[in-house]
rRNA methyltransferase
Amino acid sequence: MGELIIVNSVENAPEPESHEPQEPQEPQHEVGVGPWEGEWPTGDRWDPELLENGDRRNVLDQYRYWKHDAIVAELDSRRHEFHIAIENWQHDLNIGTVVRTANAFLAKEVHIIGRRRWNRRGAMVTDKYQHIRHHPTVDDFVAWAQAEGYTIIGIDIFPDSVPLETFDLPKRCVLVFGQEGPGLSAEVHDAAAATLSIEQFGSTRSMNAASAAAIAMHAWIRRHVFNQRVS
Ligand SMILES: C[S@@+](CC[C@H](N)C(=O)[O-])C[C@H]1O[C@@H](n2cnc3c(N)ncnc32)[C@H](O)[C@@H]1O
C-alpha cells in the first residue's frame, strides 16, 4: 500500500452560502494514499485506476484501492437491521448529516419522504455508500414499511411521546425524523407504533434533527449490537 497522507479537518470547510442542494463533493484537501507501490494485487475488488493514480477517497484504510461497488457490496453483507427516514418538505440542511450518521452506524437504508432533492453537503459523499430510497408521500412510505414488516417509530416531542431512554426499540424498525420547524408530520405521527422523545435538560425546546438522529441510531446500536437492555 502507498503511504498514508495527512488529513486536514474536513469539518472546518466553510459552509456554502446558498441553501440550494449541492452536488456531492469529495473533500478538497488531499487525503488517502498515493499510487500502489510494487506488484499490483490481483482480484476483482481492486480498481486499476486507483492503483495507478492513488486513492484520495474519504474511506477507511481497509477499503483503499477497492472499486466502489466492492465497498458497497462488503457493507451490504453486514448492514444492520434498522432503517431511518426523514421528512423533506422544505430542503432541510440536516439531511446530509443524518445520511452520514446512518452510514457510520451502517443503517440498512435511508428513506427520504417528500421532495426528492436534498442538500448533500453534510453527507460528505457517504451517500454514495448508502442505499437511499425516495417516497413522494407519507402514504407511500407507510405502504413500504408495512409491506416489508418494519415497525415505524417516530422520533419527536409530542405530548404522547414516551422516553427513548427507557423504550425497548424493536430490532426490525424504521426510525423517522421530522424537520426543523414543523417536526414530524401528523401523518407519520398517526402511522407510528410509538413516538419517542429524547430527554433534554437545558432551556431549548428541541435539538436539531441531525443530533436527535445520531442519539436515536446509537440507542438502536446499544440495544441490538451491544445487547444493552433498557429498564
Ligand atoms: C427542531 S425539531 C422540530 C420541532 C419540534 N417538533 C418542536 O415541537 O419544537 C426537528 C426534529 O428533530 C427531532 N428532535 C429534536 N429534538 C428532539 C427531542 N428532544 N426528542 C426527539 N426528537 C427530537 C425530531 O425528529 C424533530 O422532528
